[in-house]
Design goal:
Uridine_kinase-like, ATP binding, 8 helices, binds adenosine-5'-diphosphate, Rossmann fold, uridine/cytidine kinase, EC 2.7.1.48, P-loop_NTPase, binds the ligand O=c1ccn([C@@H]2O[C@H](COP(=O)(O)O)[C@@H](O)[C@H]2O)c(=O)[nH]1, alpha/beta
Length: about 290
């Protein structure tokens, strides 16, 4: 091979290396930039960080709401103005879908399966959680268990640092499940749950004993076994005995508290924080907890 051919060849090789290098540098930036909007909301040169999203699943009356309440109390959030809260909590029940007229009739007779995934508007739940993760203020509908429907009242959820969402099937829908940075499963035995559900549904949800037991045997128990219990395997932390488990609650509170300390709530100037400081999905590597 002549010297000029060698030179031409090595120049070609050098050019190739440069192209490859440029390509990998560009794809590195593309990756970073593409990741950024999911973690930061950019408005007028300011960025507000995405909240740390915690899913809390478990069977009916396992104590999901009570666990969330305890966490809020221990973090001193319960008595704060809604606009001031750094930790907020919502329920998957706000995302039950509207029923058709025949379904409404069945629901009134206790013959509608509210424990089946089809009872939920999972698209709306997903869209709302994405808005929350984008740092938006959202309206959360109130669910009315007496009329078995979404009421016309909503509660405003202001951007917060940590958002808890509790519900029987929060880990059921894969796209929803993948949004969580941390997944908790409240594991309370079925007898205890039934013993709690009966008085609650009679006193708070306007049911009679026969209705509660029929619904439990026909729908609640089979659906728990088919749809809710299998999602326990997705949990990062299982909380046996629910709100009675003070050790588990204290550990979770400590973790959230550390997260809040590491992530001051003020809005950040653009470029003020690195991507690696922001929450990572628990299904991927590098989780912060
Ligand atoms: N550790 C507990 N000890 C006694 N009662 C409890 C406990 N946890 C929850 N409860 C009661 O059981 C019922 C269901 O609890 P809740 O937290 O609403 O469960 P979930 O949100 O899982 O449906 C409520 O009436 C609640 O007050
Ligand atoms: O109109 C409705 C809607 C839901 N339910 C029951 O509620 C539970 C879920 O709420 P928990 O607070 O987790 O118990 C679910 O088991 C449904 O059966 C209802 O009875 N009526």
């Amino acid at each position: 091979m002549s010297i000029s051919a060698v030179l031409r060849n090595s120049r070609t090789r050098a050019l190739c290396v440069l192209v490859v290098l440029r390509k990998s540098v560009r794809s590195f930036y593309t990756y970073k930039m593409a990741e950024k909007p999911a973690d930061y909301l950019s408005t007028n040169g300011f960025e507000s960080k995405t909240p740390f999203l915690i899913g809390v699943a478990g069977g009916t009356a396992s104590g999901k709401s009570t666990v969330c309440q305890r966490i809020m109390e221990k973090l001193g959030q319960q008595h704060k103005e809604h606009t001031e809260r750094r930790v907020v909590c919502i329920s998957q029940d706000s995302f039950y879908r509207s029923l058709t007229a025949p379904e409404r009739l069945r629901a009134e007779r206790g013959q509608f399966n509210f424990d089946h995934p089809d009872a939920f508007d999972d698209k709306k739940l997903l869209a709302t959680l994405k808005d929350i993760l984008a740092g938006k203020k959202v309206e959360i509908p109130e669910y009315d268990y007496i009329s078995n429907s979404i009421s016309n009242r909503t509660n405003t959820l202001y951007p917060a640092d940590v958002v808890l969402i509790e519900g029987i099937l929060v880990f059921y829908f894969p796209e929803v499940r993948d949004l969580f940075h941390m997944k908790l499963f409240v594991d309370t035995d079925s007898d205890t749950r039934l013993a709690r559900r009966v008085p609650r549904d009679i006193m708070e949800r306007g049911r009679d004993l026969e209705q509660v037991l029929n619904q439990y045997m026909n729908f609640v128990k089979p659906a728990f076994e088919e749809f809710c219990l299998p999602t326990k395997k997705f949990a990062d932390v299982i909380i046996p005995r629910g709100a009675d488990n003070l050790v588990a609650i204290d550990l979770i509170v400590q973790h959230i508290s550390d997260y809040l300390k590491k992530n001051p709530s003020e809005v950040l100037l653009t470029g003020g924080s690195s991507i690696s400081d922001s929450p990572q999905r628990s299904s991927k590597g590098g989780r912060p907890h």
